[in-house]
Write a structure and sequence with these properties.
By secondary structure, the chain is α/β, with parallel strands linked by helices. It has 11 helices and 12 strands. The protein is 38% helix and 18% strand.
């Protein structure tokens, strides 16, 4: 397994990470046994970085991971997001990253995960009512206590990243980045590189849109059914982009998913996170680590999906409003 360090001061992790959110019903029901088998397969392949959030399935995801890594905790690095508050129906009702909330959320995560420490701990979103300096300072206290090893951030802009990094070293910024989501290239990615902050990139397959046979309809409990990129004319446009990418992938003898994962991972400080609940898809994703590009191929891809090529925002309007990275 190829390795990369998260930023200048972070842990050395596998060059690809496993995003576990989908194992807790974000995309409709997931098979529990296959989800656990997928985590086991990841560990067997030396995929060390497992990404979760304490609000994924209202704690379900952390409990699932606890079961999967039992007896093998030292083989993985756990990246945990916190702060998202949800009601019983699963609706988001806000974010809380006050110092007291940091200590509270972490205590519950450690119990659910069955571990004495989290490798990377990060607020899921910027809480507009709490200065980032206070949140990072509170996590730094947990670092001093040994319950957190490293501090990360998620979906923040360049200015917020600078402010946070001035308080305590930030090892990585988790943010959406891929062929159809290239917005970070203008300012956020260069700032991270300047500061020595890694990027853990989610959404590299644009929630399954980048696929040999992308789905066109979704059940009501699949949040893509409310995402602009999967609606009407937007979907038709985006499927056209994917069809062209499929052709490029075929000419290289790889799948379009492998093409997209490798493209995101071509950047030295980026570790792609692949969210899957199936061992076959995990194996396909790991195969992307062997894909290399010529300069001509990169120019060809860039011509097909330049910045802003995708139609529709990556989240619904109310969720986009929560993103400091989009301001």
């Amino acid at each position: 397994m190829q390795k990369r360090q998260l930023g200048n001061t972070g842990p050395v992790v596998s060059a690809i990470g496993l995003g576990c959110m989908g194992m807790s019903n974000a995309y409709g029901p997931a098979d529990r046994d296959e989800s656990i088998a997928t985590i086991h397969a990841a560990m067997d392949a030396e995929v060390t970085l497992l990404d979760t959030g304490d609000f994924y399935g209202q704690g379900h995801n952390e409990l699932l991971i606890r079961e999967a890594i039992k007896g093998r905790r030292d083989e993985v690095q756990l990246s945990v997001k916190f702060g998202g508050m949800r009601d019983r129906a699963g609706a988001f009702i806000g974010f809380d990253t006050r110092p007291a909330a940091v200590a509270n959320f972490l205590a519950y995560s450690l119990e659910r995960l069955g571990t004495d420490y989290v490798d990377v701990y990060r607020p899921a979103r910027l809480d507009p009512s709490v200065p980032i300096e206070e949140t990072v300072g509170a996590i730094a206290e947990q670092v001093e206590k040994g319950w957190v090893r490293h501090i990360g951030l998620s979906e923040v802009g360049a200015e917020t990243l600078r402010r946070a990094h001035a308080v305590h070293p930030i090892v990585d910024l988790q943010i959406e980045y891929g062929l159809l989501s290239r917005g970070i290239e203008a300012e956020i990615l260069p700032t991270a590189q300047e500061l020595g902050v890694g990027i853990t990139a989610y959404g590299v397959l644009s929630r399954g849109l980048i696929s040999a046979t992308p789905a066109r309809e979704f059940p009501a409990d699949d949040y893509r059914s409310h995402t602009p990129r999967f609606q009407g004319d937007n979907l038709a446009h985006n499927l056209g982009l994917v069809e062209t990418l499929n052709g490029i992938a075929a000419s290289k003898g790889v799948t379009v998913a492998q093409l997209a994962i490798a493209w995101a991972g071509r950047v030295e400080n980026v570790v792609p996170l692949v969210g899957t609940t199936k061992r076959a898809r995990l194996s396909e994703a790991i195969g992307a680590l062997d894909v290399e590009f010529t300069e001509q191929e990169l120019r060809e891809i860039d011509a097909v999906v330049p910045v802003g090529a995708a139609a529709g925002t990556r989240y619904a309007a109310e969720q986009m409003a929560m993103l400091d990275s989009e301001r």
